[in-house]
Amino acid sequence: MKEAKDMVNIVQRLLLDGHRFDIPESVNLILEPGICSKDDEIDSNCVVRARGLPWQSSDQDIAKFFRGLNVAKGGVALCLSPQGRRNGEALVRFVSQEHRDMALKRHKHHIGSRYIEVYRASGDDFLSVAGGSNCEAQAFLSRGAAVIVRMRGLPYDCTAKQVLEFFASGENSCNVLDGNDGVLFVKKSDGRATGDAFVLFANETDAPKALSKHRESIGSRYIELFRSTTAEVQQVLNRTLDPKVYETPAPILPPIHPVPLLPQHIITSGTRKDCIRLRGLPYEAQVEHILDFLGDYAKNIVFQGVHMVYNAQGQPSGEAFIQMDSEQSAFITAQQKHHRYMIFGKKQRYIEVFQCSGEDMNLVLTGGIPAPVSPAKAAPALLSPGGNIIPTAFHPGPNFPGYAPVQIAATPLGPRQFLPHQIFYWPYPSPPVSPTNYYPTMPPPGALPPQQPQQPLIPPECVGLPPMAAIPTMDARLMSDGLQRSEHEKSRQNFPQNQYVELII
């Protein structure tokens, strides 16, 4: 009401000053559906890219974010990831450059609790997402439906009749537009079903009724329902019919050379939730910035307990894992710091903080492969089984004395003798290179040609041993006499450095 009164006062003042409203401009309240072809010409001065959208946002939600500006028919194109899921981005096409320029001023405005980034984009960007050349999709979308719903998780042998019965049953029943012709099943290029389908409805009032059946079942499978767009229909069909165009090339990674063994630093494991995971960090953030962000809670971090995560190209991923001294410390830290802001220069980013276990951390770092468990006892190991020095382009130098990259060696996983993804771990404090790199699975033993033996690297604090013949691996762990494993698990960080030793041959 206050905004309406303010607008009336503004209009009255303009009239008093002699202004005449000769060319009234209408503003669309509802986004109109439309079809875009790859042959269309799109003005690059009318397109923006919105980033950071909630994954469940529909085209109508995005149009509401730009309310007061006229979006072209079918002008919202939701972007999909290589896996076919929404990635939080959308391309929006406006009717004129003037409206596009006003849309750019909504940079960092909010949808709910999320701020949305708005950037310029090109017409080619919009066509790559929303443009289609599939005749079946064009005929399907030209039926004049007001609502499109995407179904996911369908049985592979599902028929259009089952889909019609699915929406017609129950309390919130609704009718599909044009019967069987209002259902479009998504198929692969070889004709096999994908478990996805798009369904048309005639009226906007059918949308809540249809979406209320989310997670109801057809046969033994529950079905996921999402509101969709014409651009998403074309994008999904384009990918399924020509998947090679949308495949992301695998990164080229350097080979790994075997080198001598060194003792490995303590790293957590097990199901105790004594770790926290930070997401959304600025790419320029270092360990000291994380400590400043945690404030007084940083005193509960164990020695060498901050692990920055980098991708395979050595670029920051915006994530970090931190080992705390207890589950209670991890819980309180996650509770108090979740969605708090980190100030970094002129940037202000809210950080997601989750409580997790050491096993969760290792699963992420090793690409989803669980750590091996001893057959005798299912209790988690206290120490890693040793590691290798890995040559790297980074030299610690005077800023990081005594630190060197350590590779966590993988333990054989049974008679198949294959190894999980190897990871590279930098002890705290993290240097300005990747502490966690992902490399493809190593081949089984014997598949590689024999390597020439290398001269062992013996640290100054170790005593040199005479050359020995090859013997089986032995893992020896020395603890104080009379100390039970469970007690040691709780208090190991308080031991002097030389009272807890791991020997690996």
Structural descriptors:
single chain; 12 helices; five-stranded antiparallel β-sheet; 505 residues; 21% helix; alpha+beta
Describe the structure in brief.
Belongs to the ESRP family. GO terms for molecular function: RNA binding. The protein is an alpha+beta fold and 505 residues long.
| % residues in beta strands | 15-25%
What is the strand tally? 22
Average pLDDT across residues? Answer: 76
Question: Biggest sheet, in brief?
Answer: 5 strands, antiparallel
Uncertain spans, ≥5 residues at pLDDT below 50? 250-266, 369-445, 480-495
Please bin the fraction of helical residues.
Answer: 10-25%
Rg, Å, rounded: 29 Å
The N- to C-terminal Cα distance equals: 78 Å
What is the overall number of helices?
A: 12
The secondary structure category is alpha+beta
> Could you say which overall geometry the principal axes of the C-alpha atoms support?
globular
Instruction: Order the strands across the largest sheet as they lie in space.
Output: 2-3-1-5-4
Could you please describe the fold and organization of this structure?
This protein is of the alpha+beta class. Helix content is 21%, strand content 24%. The protein has twelve helices and 22 strands. It has helices spanning 2-16, 59-65, 97-104, 123-130, 135-141, 160-168, 206-211, 230-241, 287-294, 327-337, 358-365, 485-491; strands spanning 47-51, 71-80, 86-94, 109-111, 114-120, 147-152, 183-187, 193-201, 217-218, 221-222, 224-227, 261-262, 275-279, 301-310, 316-324, 340-344, 347-356, 387-389, 406-408, 423-425, 475-478, 501-504. The strands form six sheets. It has a five-stranded antiparallel beta sheet with strand order 2-3-1-5-4, with helices on both faces. It has a five-stranded antiparallel beta sheet with strand order 14-15-13-17-16. Strands 7-8-6-11 form a four-stranded antiparallel beta sheet, with helices on both faces. A hairpin with a 5-residue loop joins strand 14 (301-310) and strand 15 (316-324). The radius of gyration is 29 Å and the shape is globular. The protein starts with a helix and ends with a strand. The model is unreliable at 250-266, 369-445 and 480-495 (pLDDT under 50). Belongs to the ESRP family. Residues 147-230 form the RRM domain. Pfam families: RRM_1 (PF00076). Keywords: mRNA processing, mRNA splicing, Nucleus, Repeat, RNA-binding. Its main location: nucleus.
